[in-house]
Amino acid sequence: MLKKDLAGFFAFFLGVFGVHRFYLGQWWRGAAQFVGFWAIIAFLAEEGPEMPAPFILVGFVLAPIITAIVFWATPYERWAAKYDPEALVAQGYAPPTTTGRYPTVATAQAPKPSLKSLKAEGVKYYRSGDFDLAIEAFQEAIELAPSDPAAHFNVACCYALLGQYPAALRHLELAVTYRLPKPERIESHPALKELRASTAYRCFRSNNYRELNLVSLTQSAQPAPADEAEDVLEDFAAPPRSDASNRRMLDDDLLVQINRLRELHDAGVLTQQEYRKQREKLLG
């Protein structure tokens, strides 16, 4: 590993002999400096101070001194990028580029947050009343899991509290389509109180909680995982629930599935025809 200050020292005091160039591995330039200096000395000794030999000698003396000053004044990263790039990379700096950009310290890319952490962050902002930040967190969660019903429901609550009813209805439709756990909470959740009083919501409800049919129920919409199914916002004034209460086991019992269909039908999520079709499918 080369040292910038030492290279400057060699250039300032021994530069006329090309020592700093040999130190930097530029042996051809060091040899040229060494041979050129002594050639001028020999010429002056033989012919005397005839022009322009004295000026050439002054140039050979001043050039390494100026080089030393430049070495000392240049930031280490820029100096090492030119003369010792391997050491620069070894110290954690980004390798130099051909564009001449100033090298920067190479940092490890931060791992992307998980779906659960994003939803927890959104809930935290929601409880503190920062609905805009909560929306950002829930939207990031939706980007990771577009079919997560809890994330869609949560962001719908935030939009409703901000008075952005079209966006709230859109995410409510997606939440219902992706099998929102306990869909009846749409009719009772305090965050949706003002939304429920709007004409747009009444039309939305009369259409089985659909406005644009963004995702068809005939598609294979997957239910929320067991550890995420209850990760839905409750009253923002209530304290957070424990992790144990947020987890429930999936029950594949036929009776439970039939009861689940009945709940969806009673809540208006499934039409009579859809309910019969799904029930017949379960009964074989």
Broad shape: rod-shaped
* CATH fold topology of the largest domain: Serine Threonine Protein Phosphatase 5, Tetratricopeptide repeat
Work out the number of β strands: 0
Whole-number count of domains = 3
Task: Supply the CATH superfamily name of the largest domain.
Answer: Tetratricopeptide repeat domain
Q: How would you characterize the overall build of this protein?
A:
The chain is mostly helical. The chain has three domains: 4-73, no CATH class; 115-236, Tetratricopeptide repeat domain (Serine Threonine Protein Phosphatase 5, Tetratricopeptide repeat, Alpha Horseshoe), CATH 1.25.40.10; 251-284. The protein has 14 helices and no strands. Helix 1 packs antiparallel against helix 4, helix 9 (149-161) packs antiparallel against helix 10 (165-177) and helix 13 (254-266) packs antiparallel against helix 14 (272-283). The longest helix is centred in the N-terminal third of the chain and has 21 residues, at 27-47. The radius of gyration is 37 Å and the shape is rod-shaped.
